[in-house]
């Protein structure tokens, strides 16, 4: 039996006191019971409609028959059940048909789907898309597009990357030209014609919903007719696959968006990933050239608007990575409990006439299981903490909201990158526990590992996250975010140090915090960004380990001083694993940061 | 252009002085030119017959049509070209049709095939199988089986594991019963009837050769009719797929070996991997029940015989892992040199009107490339060093041969495990350099990563290697092997410390050696194997890093004091990367070894 539900409940209620959110006006109708009902529904749908088809969606990859993208029937049924659960709009206002559910609970419930089949997927993109429109769209854009996304009638995408511009958005070449002299008069927003190619668009083409709402970054040419260079030239457009009227009804006309190709991936195959051509003339529409798109927000502010959905999207990726890690942990735990092989080390194991023991009795198998538990449950705790901060940002007092915002700025790169790296490592350990069987497609763990490899790449690669963390987040607003995080960590240390059984961890965490702080200063000592950021990834790895160690120590504070139940003992052990086996890795990462080691940065190209 | 050939030549000649082997009688006809000719042939075959089909053999997995296992035509052609190269018997005596090639050169040449397509494969198993028969078989077994393997007429397998006995060979259940009263009179060796199932048998069924020679571990029942428990009950048998006469001709009769299933793997799909049923009655032969097998060596000594092929097999696995790492390094280097994306950090990169730079100009991409180079070329150097020790063991003076044997005992677990772990990490970095493209099947790196994941599992898992290293190899013969390795490392340190540019590395290596030595003692301080081995894998990781750092420092001693050429600068940088970014990881691994940390070993099962 999966330990996911009790782990979530412990973290949500014993640690994060999520039920205290119901004291706030927005969540006043909720209670631990209503939260539980949401979790029940999601858990059931995931068990019945997702988990049984995870391998199927891997082997029956999306294909294009020339007209339509074909997905397995199981994907349609899972999607329908997901829509039926109401989760797409769960966080929205009652008047929009939502249930004003805290994001913390939404994020927690999402793990059921992601552990069952990450690539059938939940509503991450659709929700993010619609949330962005709620924040930056006109009232009619919200009504026509967002509302229909929350109801599941339409689905959503983010169209940022282009074949020649992956991480470098300032180099996008998609252009948007005003559509006729009356372009500003369109009730759906200033109407443009878009032409360009968008790469890596997840869920960019399918038949799961009536329509697909693309949010597209493009450049409006300046007065000289040329696109404005850099990111300040980027604007945001809502570009529906099928045109709609002001009531959100399909007009029957298709927009000029053509599927140029499906990407054939290493994993995550249940989700289509596409190259889309906008306005190339495959579906000429209303006599003009280009796909019709409506401006969202003001011209030149596209990236700022898009970043609105970035924090939640990045937490979502971290949650996907964590869920895959947890799925592998459960699978390998189950295997280890049932597979007999070998005998104990030492005298007890010398008699070959004795039966073999189950592999969970071997120290090295326990090590591989405990590492997984420590990585994945630690990551889960951090992500729920971040989700709780999102709720604080939206519903807390002004001071608390601003603190939450700042903490999220600093923690988001970690919440996205750390699980991507270490829950992937957990999946590799899950394979290793299975031995040769883990390397076959008869067991689920190899797929988890393949699926998880995506998470270090999409929504900003590891390198991008690291540059964001060290180059921006820890120095922004005079280092206020980092100082705030340090204060939270110190508060945890001060509580823990008073408990004899936690004092050792508290001291170790204090030293790690001091080291990371010193390394941050040393990296920037010359105020030269190229030198500071030359080792940004090792910095992020050390920073991430600090944050997860802090998370674990804080989680331990929610346990009784005398642990008695096995689950409590498990958390104590997982934390101890992290403090004994993982936290000591920090100095090795920081060494090159502190010295601004130039070994890599100055490597001559011809010496490779 | 691949840098593999010049790297190999540098390591073989400038560092290992491989041409000095030609001063020995066995290799007297050889010269650097004849070695070069062998390398030329292998490089050409790999380029023409292997590399173009690496993706094909991944997508056209082996399948069984009810009678035969079908492999792509390209595999047949690659195999034929490989056989034609003479590499199968290259190391053998002239009188056996060999060319008395040093193993060092054979191993080096093998990297061309493994980088081009690891799963089309070379002759690892066939050569190992035949070498075992040369060492332990009767003259007729050598003539009938080994000789035909060296010529490529027959191919070979190792049949150790069973579904219920993977790593635990003492639990195999395959039985061998004497075949009739005259069983000892068969000219091919004492004749038995075998019944049982063998799992994970690579190349267990195919049509690439006229016959398949299985070397099978099985138990001969004791006087009480029961199999002898433990490993001392294990005997070794040669079991041909098709029966042969004393001239090695096929008799036309098929032996009772049935393909029970093909394993469907995560990678390495160009090689069939099988479950074989011996003697289940699918092909009843000569009226008896069971597959016919001929005893090799003496009853009960099967495992000892089998271990004869283990060292070379494990070096072979390390070489495969390393080759995959090198292939990913080359692919990502090529990509990074050609992919424009983004701009430099700092003022130079602020102008979006400037064109994008190639990603190899970014510090973090350089870091990922240099890490790959450091891992993979370091591993390559170690493996060639081990191969050189194999030659020393076979052709050196008695003292040198014994030293080589001892060093190989200690180094083999590292040579197998370290590349399996860190060249896999290199492959992950190769994906990361490619960004989203690396996650698609349009680029080769995802396949390298999948293929490489096998190497931590087969030929003894990571856990098995670690228990072997810490439980046996560093303590055997009173710690003589470890002392010898330490003496070699100290000799390198003493030479390096005299060169100002190497002194820092030499000091760091000295400290690491001291730490590993102390941890070895501390692990065994209570003389309790269960305590000592509870953290055997972290110990092996630290030990491996020590060995690779030593290898790199020793390699640097082969460079001129003033490096001038780019390739030389590259080696200096790769070594420096290892000393600055990797060696400092050792204390974190050893901490739990020194304290015999029981966090994992004593974890209660119900706390997971």
UniProtKB/TrEMBL annotation, chains A, B:
It comes from the Bacteria. Its cofactor is FAD. Keywords: FAD, Flavoprotein. The keyword Acetylation does not apply. One of its GO terms (molecular function) is oxidoreductase activity, acting on the CH-CH group of donors. Transmembrane segments: none annotated. Residues 300-468 form the Acyl-CoA dehydrogenase/oxidase C-terminal domain. The keyword Flavoprotein applies. Residues 486-604 form the Acetyl-CoA dehydrogenase-like C-terminal domain. Belongs to the acyl-CoA dehydrogenase family. This is Acyl-CoA dehydrogenase. It comes from Ramlibacter monticola.
